[in-house]
Amino acid sequence: MVTKVAVVTGANKGIGFAIVRGLCKRFDGVVYLTSRDETRGENAVIQLSKEGLHPKYHQLDITSVKSVEKFRDYIKNEYGGIDILVNNAAIAFKNNAKEPVTVQAEQTLFVNYFSLLSTCEILFPILRNGARVVNISSSSGHLTQIPSVALKKRFKDPNLTVEQLGELMQEYIEAARKGTQLAEWGNSSYVVSKVGVTALTKIQQRMVNDRDIKVNAVHPGYVDTDMSSHKGPLTIDEGASAPLFLALDAGDSVRGQYVWYNSKVVSWDGEKPEG
Ligand code: NAP
To answer: CB of 63 closer than 6 A to ligand 1?
Structure first.
């Protein structure tokens, strides 16, 4: 019998950790808690084992092609493929960060957009039929967060390609380098990276439409984690709820969608819901 496999990136803490917890409770297969740092990842596994939950562990740094390829080869050899992939790992500079805008733009887009993309490019070939991919976006990934009408139009082009989206991301980095037109992008690297993730989700769904694979993006809510400086009102388990809905429960029609933390599909370019 085939053993099903679920994988969560950046799962040593925060929402990713709670997604692993939820998958361990409900998914009929093995759950891989992955992290860039082995010690932090193994400590997280120990924490869950105290709750009677037993995820497997593998190192996975989404910014390292070598690390992702090693992980892919391991999973392919051991199990043959992946059934659930949750792209959760991300970074966010704090509002008072000292790093120049250029550095923030380059690093944020490198991790949150380009590394999520390259991780998918490496892992998608081993997705099994029936697989579900959950890209953790944000309310910042709502299209209304980009003020420029012209840019919005380019992001929501139904024929947008991965190459063209990459060019959009590079244009923002260029704007940050030059210090020009940043207001058109909403003055936030995190916003651009997450609008990129939501746009990418729609392209990825189109690219796998000939197979039984669902790719969706989700805003997990404003959650009490290190990233939010513990200001978010939701617990990590509440933040894991909509990602788990997409990974386990969403119906067949939910494909290439953007889902809010209450598990409802929202219009990406319509009015942004609360929260
Ligand atoms: P968090 O507590 O800061 O956790 C982020 C996780 O990503 C950590 O495990 C971190 O590992 C990992 N990570 C960072 N870079 C990585 C890399 N190169 N390779 C692998 N893992 C990496 O943040 P969170 O709040 O749980 O956020 C989880 C997701 O939800 C993110 O996509 C975030 O943008 C999104 N989100 C969060 C909120 C919120 O209110 N918290 C709201 C909307 C969306 P280390 O421990 O090694 O740094």
So the answer is: yes
